[in-house]
């Protein structure tokens, strides 16, 4: 009989244990309600303690150890953690309140009540507590008011849980959120020491937080950090020097599209630039997509990003291409021989940096990643420099530069009614001061560099949409870029995209030096004069509100 009781007791213990485990899960709903209980998931719903919720209504489901079992996004996970921290804070406040009241610490009681209300105490309960505290004198006692420390604790615990669960990315993001509360949390510090590389020496002073920030910004877009011994980093390290001629620490981030190398420690700037680079390349990948790709050697485009002009000049002075005077005047350049796009940061000039960035990367992309060009057929620079139709090189890069790239949503549009090219050509068209179209569309790169081949007369244009109301001087070289870009805007968008494929083919044919195919009439079925007239009319139409149906 006794034995039997023992057996039953053991069975009961097991059953109890199982029940405890099963009910240890926590679910946070989108309205911040926190539920505990046994959880199961099926298809698009999650059932907690017998109640069923659509996954879209669930921010976070985690087990008793704080390991996330489900959360649609990091944002949801984080919001779920805030809700859990609020619940914990509320519990702590309500536990301390009776003691504060009993000991007559009125001031602290009010503070605890305010913190509780802030953490979601319901109005009726608040009223009851108010009545209880109301008669107290404003004394204080030994009461800690739970605040950001609770949030830091909740986040650090989840960061540790994610690390233990091999969720590296989630763990870093949660750790950063924990550190951002500004509260020293031991768990968070330990984890940071553990994950940040011991040899990390960046910024002044040496700071592991920078490493974490940078990693978090970079990995949020599906990028990965580039190892110290990766060949692209090593190659850059061979050339990169600081003010004293010493080698510098470099680091990098990589996607399928780009490898980004810099020594800059401002993670927000690096992150923004990598996102523009990545997004503009992605837009080109999509634009040139073909069922019959001609290349599969799609190495990422290598980008060197300098923290200032001095560093940029120091590293590139004496470079075999893109060097010399040109370099001092440039804001960036693409070097075909070294397969790098090069840029530097200009404080306060985000738009300008971004534009240079997208422009040079477009040159880079067309040369290295265009799936419609077989690498064997691509002409080298010298061969290409005598092919008529150089307008496509600068026009196309400027057209892509003038697109709209939303790095937050990851969307883009190549139609931009505020594009300078459209604005300027519309104005100069009315003044009958554009460059001769037949000449412009037939120039080679060599011709373009010869001032006698471009009409140098003085021109001023009112660039309305950029809010420069006074006429701006437009030199011939600039006008060549704008007119060429306007031509691309037209060929891409006009007549429901009738010329779009011909435009993309023209890009490919020029880069492959197929001279006969760069003839305007052959390529588009229009004479250069007709094409020019159409472009001018298109620009005026856009300025008057015309816009295309969706891309
Ligand atoms: Zn260019």
Protein model, in words:
This protein folds into 3 domains: 1-72, no CATH class; 196-378, Zincin-like (2-Layer Sandwich); 393-543, no CATH class. The protein is elongated, with a radius of gyration of 31 Å. Helix 10 (267-287) crosses helix 13 and helix 16 (420-430) crosses helix 22 (528-543). It has 22 helices and 17 strands. Residues 1-22 and 319-323 have low confidence and may be disordered. With 551 residues, the protein is α+β, with helices and mostly antiparallel strands. 51% of the residues lie in helices and 13% in strands. It has a 6-stranded mixed sheet, with helices on both faces. Zinc ion (ZN) is lined by residues 359, 363, 394, 397.
What are the main properties of this structure?
6-stranded mixed beta sheet; single chain; 3 domains; 4-stranded antiparallel beta sheet; Zincin-like; 551 residues; alpha+beta; binds zinc ion; 22 helices; 13% strand; 17 strands
Question: How would you briefly describe this protein structure?
Answer:
This protein is 51% helix and 13% strand.
CATH architecture of the largest domain: 2-Layer Sandwich
**DSSP strand (E) fraction?**
5-15%
Biggest beta-sheet profile: 6 strands, mixed
CATH class of the largest domain: Alpha Beta
Strand order of the largest sheet: 8-9-10-11-13-12
In total, the number of strands is 17
Q: What is the CA-based Rg, rounded?
A: 31 Å
End-to-end Cα distance, whole Å, is: 81 Å
How many domains, as an integer?
3
The CATH topology of the largest domain is given as: Zincin-like
């Amino acid at each position: 009989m006794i034995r039997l009781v023992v057996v039953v007791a053991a069975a009961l213990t097991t059953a109890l244990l199982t029940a405890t485990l099963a009910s240890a899960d926590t679910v946070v709903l989108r309205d911040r309600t926190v539920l505990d209980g046994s959880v199961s998931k099926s298809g698009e719903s999650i059932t907690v303690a017998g109640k069923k919720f659509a996954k879209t209504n669930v921010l976070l489901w985690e087990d008793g150890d704080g390991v996330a079992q489900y959360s649609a996004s990091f944002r949801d996970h984080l919001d779920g953690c805030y809700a859990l921290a609020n619940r914990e804070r509320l519990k702590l406040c309500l536990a301390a309140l009776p003691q504060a009241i009993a000991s007559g610490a009125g001031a602290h009681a009010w503070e605890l009540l305010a913190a509780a209300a802030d953490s979601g105490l319901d109005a009726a309960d608040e009223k009851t507590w108010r009545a209880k505290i109301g008669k107290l004198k404003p004394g204080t006692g030994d009461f800690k008011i739970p605040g950001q420390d609770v949030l830091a604790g909740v986040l650090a615990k989840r960061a540790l849980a994610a690390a233990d669960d091999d969720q590296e990315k989630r763990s870093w993001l949660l750790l950063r959120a924990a550190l951002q509360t500004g509260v020293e949390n031991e768990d968070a510090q330990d984890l940071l020491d553990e994950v940040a590389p011991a040899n990390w020496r960046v910024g002044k002073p040496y700071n592991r937080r920078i490493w974490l920030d940078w990693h978090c910004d970079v990995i949020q877009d599906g990028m990965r950090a580039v190892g110290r011994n990766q060949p692209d980093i090593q190659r850059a390290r061979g050339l990169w020097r600081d003010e004293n001629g010493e080698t510098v620490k470099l680091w990098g981030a990589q996607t399928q599209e780009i490898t980004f190398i810099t020594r800059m420690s401002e993670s927000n700037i690096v992150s923004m630039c990598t996102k523009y680079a990545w997004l503009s390349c992605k837009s080109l990948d999509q634009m040139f997509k073909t069922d019959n790709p001609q290349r599969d050697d799609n190495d990422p485009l290598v980008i060197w990003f300098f923290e200032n002009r001095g560093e940029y000049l120091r590293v590139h002075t004496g470079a075999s291409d893109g060097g010399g005077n040109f370099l001092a005047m440039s804001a960036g350049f693409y070097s075909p021989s070294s397969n790098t796009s090069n840029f530097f940061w200009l404080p306060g000039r985000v738009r300008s940096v971004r534009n240079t960035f997208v422009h040079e990367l477009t040159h880079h992309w067309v040369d290295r990643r265009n799936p419609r060009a077989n690498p064997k057929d691509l002409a080298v620079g010298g061969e290409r420099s005598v092919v008529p139709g150089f307008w496509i090189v600068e026009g196309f890069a400027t057209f892509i530069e003038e697109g709209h790239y939303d790095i937050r949503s990851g969307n883009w549009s190549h139609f931009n009614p505020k594009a300078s090219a459209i604005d300027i050509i519309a104005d100069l068209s009315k003044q009958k001061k554009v460059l001769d179209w037949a000449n412009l569309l037939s120039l080679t790169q060599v011709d373009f560099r010869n001032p006698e081949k471009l009409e140098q007369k003085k021109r001023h244009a009112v660039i309305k949409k950029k809010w420069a109301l006074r006429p701006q001087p437009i030199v011939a070289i600039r006008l060549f870029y704008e007119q060429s870009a306007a031509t691309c805007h037209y060929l891409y968008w006009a007549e429901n995209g009738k010329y779009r494929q011909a435009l993309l083919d023209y890009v490919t044919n020029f880069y492959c030096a197929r001279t006969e195919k760069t003839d305007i009439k052959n390529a588009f079925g229009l004479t250069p004069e007709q094409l020019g007239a159409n472009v001018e009319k298109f620009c005026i139409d856009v300025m008057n509100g015309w816009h295309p149906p969706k891309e």
